[in-house]
Inverse folding.
């Protein structure tokens, strides 16, 4: 193979790579927090006795989980701007990520709520706690602990999926790689470096989640 | 300017959807075959093989599919293959699918009690015979529901092939949208077609899972 690798040409643009990596991390962090909020609301709606809450939540979950993230992103970004709602690419990317993660988080949180035994809730009722107090003091911590592994791997999946946001020119890591290779024509090296950065992020995030998990759920 | 009726849009999207289905089948069949080999190596006695396959799976699962597509597209060209977008997409989706299926199937193989391995080795079966006659038939039963579930991920994954210029459902949607400027309508229809492909698979996976649960409790 007569190909000469030129990684120097890629690292000449290291500022762009760093900025892209930071935006990838920011988008992922914000999407994870907001997605968890949407997921919790979704799970409560999905478990509600009211059909007008239960059905829309179920439809939301199934529609999002059975269509590609890329199409959701295009639908939101191009669709909203066609009806006059001007979103920056970054905001549209965040919105799509939250909508996407929210659907998966709904199912994850729902499984977590289910994992708390009926007896626990009945015990709470019998000592006179209100529904909110039961949720706050009895249900939430064991439920969070049960879903923590699933939730953290879903957060990593969303981080990796955010590479697609380059397609609406949100300037995250993949966008940086695309931009650099359009300047120096070193496509393979650019994408190799970006892939390596994503991999390092995945490994680091996984460690961080494990560390936080051990700290938070130490009691049990 | 040519006017597109809704039927024109739908018809063209459906024509393009054939490529989404085709690419999904290629990825699933190729990835299934490669994934089976990976699974066998992953549970083999050779430490080197196990570690190598684990690294392979970690790297594929720890990097974006889009990057894998780009690397295949530009990398295969680099080592002298003249790759079409279809070839590059097939290649990287096959690798992607094989890594996930290998990980799913490893779990299924490991769910088979150790006694089964010991019993089959005590009657003198070789490693391949053990897998072929004792372990895989049992693992297959529990492997079907998650495998069908993963097929949904494969179908959705093919949407990324549009980014390297392969004309499937999503790319067709982009092209049509550029001509009609009706993004909600066009991408809504694109999403609906994906939904029609994926939702039955999701339902089927859920049904199989429930049936397996009942069988296990019985």
């Amino acid at each position: 193979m007569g190909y000469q690798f030129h990684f120097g040409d890629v690292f000449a643009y290291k500022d762009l790579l760093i900025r892209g990596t930071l935006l990838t991390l920011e988008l992922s962090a914000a999407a994870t927090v907001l997605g968890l909020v949407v997921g919790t609301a979704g799970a409560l709606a999905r478990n509600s006795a009211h059909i007008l809450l239960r059905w829309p939540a179920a439809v939301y979950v199934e529609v999002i989980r059975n269509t590609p993230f890329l199409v959701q992103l295009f639908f939101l970004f191009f669709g909203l701007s066609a009806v006059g709602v001007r979103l920056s690419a970054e905001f549209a990317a965040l919105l799509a990520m939250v909508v996407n993660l929210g659907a998966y988080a709904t199912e994850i949180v729902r499984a977590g709520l289910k994992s708390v035994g009926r007896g626990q809730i009945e015990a709470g009722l019998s000592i006179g706690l209100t529904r909110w107090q039961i949720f706050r003091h009895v249900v939430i911590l064991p439920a969070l602990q049960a879903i923590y592994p699933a939730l953290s791997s879903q957060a990593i999946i969303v981080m990796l999926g955010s590479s697609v946001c380059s397609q609406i020119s949100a300037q995250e890591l993949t966008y940086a790689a695309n931009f650099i290779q359009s300047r120096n024509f070193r496509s393979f090296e650019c994408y190799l470096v970006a892939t390596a950065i994503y991999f390092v992020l995945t490994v680091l995030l996984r460690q961080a989640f494990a560390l936080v998990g051990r700290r938070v759920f130490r009691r049990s | 300017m040519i006017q597109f009726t809704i039927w024109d849009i739908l018809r063209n999207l459906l024509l393009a959807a054939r490529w989404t289905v085709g690419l999904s089948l290629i990825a699933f069949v190729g990835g299934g075959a490669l994934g089976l080999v990976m699974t066998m190596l992953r549970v083999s006695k050779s430490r080197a093989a196990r570690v190598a396959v684990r690294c392979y799976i970690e790297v594929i699962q720890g990097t974006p599919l889009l990057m894998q597509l780009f690397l295949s597209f530009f990398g295969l060209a680099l080592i002298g293959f003249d790759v079409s977008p279809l070839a590059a997409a097939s290649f990287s989706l096959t690798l992607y699918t094989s890594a996930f299926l290998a990980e799913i199937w490893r779990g299924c193989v490991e769910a088979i009690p150790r006694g089964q391995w010991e019993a089959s080795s005590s009657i003198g079966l070789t490693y391949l015979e053990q897998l072929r006659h004792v372990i895989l038939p049992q693992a297959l039963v529990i492997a079907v529901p998650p495998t069908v579930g993963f097929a949904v991920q494969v179908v959705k994954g093919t949407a990324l092939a549009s980014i390297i210029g392969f004309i499937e459902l999503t790319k067709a949607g982009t092209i049509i949208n550029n001509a009609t400027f009706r993004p909600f309508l066009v991408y809504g229809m694109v999403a609906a077609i994906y939904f029609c492909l994926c939702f039955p698979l999701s339902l089927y996976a859920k049904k199989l899972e429930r049936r397996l649960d009942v069988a296990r409790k019985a």
